[in-house]
Amino acid sequence: MAFENPSPGAVVRGFLAAATLVFALAGFLGDDARWFAASGAFGAMWVGWDFLTAQLFDPLGSWFSRLWAGGAGAGRDAANLRPTLDDTVRLLESHLRPGVARSVVVQAAIRLEEIYRTIKDDPVRAREVIARARELVPDADELKRYK
Predict the structure, then answer these.
(1) DSSP class of residue 137?
(2) pLDDT tens for residues 121-136?
(3) pLDDT of the residue at 78
(4) Which positions ≥6 away from 113 have C-beta within 8 Å?
(5) At 38, phi and psi to the nearest 5?
(6) pLDDT of residue 62
(7) Is residue 1's pLDDT more than 60?
(8) Torsion of CA 21, 24, 25, 29, to 10 degrees
(9) How many CA atoms lie less than 13 Å away from 95 in the CB half-sphere?
(10) CB 137 within 8 A of CB 106
(11) What is the reported pTM?
(12) Over pLDDT 70: what percentage of the chain?
């Protein structure tokens, strides 16, 4: 049951609801406008509490709990942020041009050769990548192990 172990928010909500009803009843029985004003004030606090809970406390609590669990950035669109294999190939291909740092050219060529040889199963393209890198960086010791 809900009354066995209520949350702190439910206790506050229940208190505000009860106060609204008690002061409204006192206004009817006591024939004094101040009771109605108190009832209206508690009713406004009740609505404000519900609004704050739904719009601020619950979202922040969910965010903190995801942050604590290590999944703060793992929303439903997080998978769309990861680059695909084709994105990676395009990025690495863009590094195989004159004017790029020697280490970037060498690392891009090694990664591309591995992708073309193992994943895309295209040894001809893998050899072309290494040949293009050797044209850009002919003295690279890292590329000497490739035929």
Answers:
(1) -
(2) 999 999 999 999 999 9
(3) 59
(4) 126, 127, 129, 130, 146
(5) -65, -40
(6) 86
(7) no
(8) 170
(9) 20
(10) yes
(11) 0.48
(12) 91
Structure tokens at 104: 């970037």
Which residue in the block uniquely carries the two structure tokens 């406390």?
A: 57
127-141: buried (b, 16+ CB within 10 Å) or exposed (e) per residue? eebbeebbebbeebe
Give the other-Cβ count within 10 Å of 98's Cβ.
7
Whether the CB-CB separation of 17 and 46 falls below 8 Å is answered with: yes
pLDDT at 89: 93
The 3-state DSSP class for residue 90 equals helix
Q: Which structure tokens are listed for 126? A: 């893998």
Q: Output b/e per residue, 108-119; b: 16+ Cβ within 10 A.
A: bbbbbbebbbee
Identify the pLDDT of residue 18: 93
Q: Which of 80-84, 115-119, 138-142 has the highest mean pLDDT?
A: 115-119
Q: Are 35 and 24 in contact (CB under 8 A)?
A: yes
The DSSP code for 38 is H
Q: Which of 119, 97, 99 is nearest to 108 (CA)?
A: 97
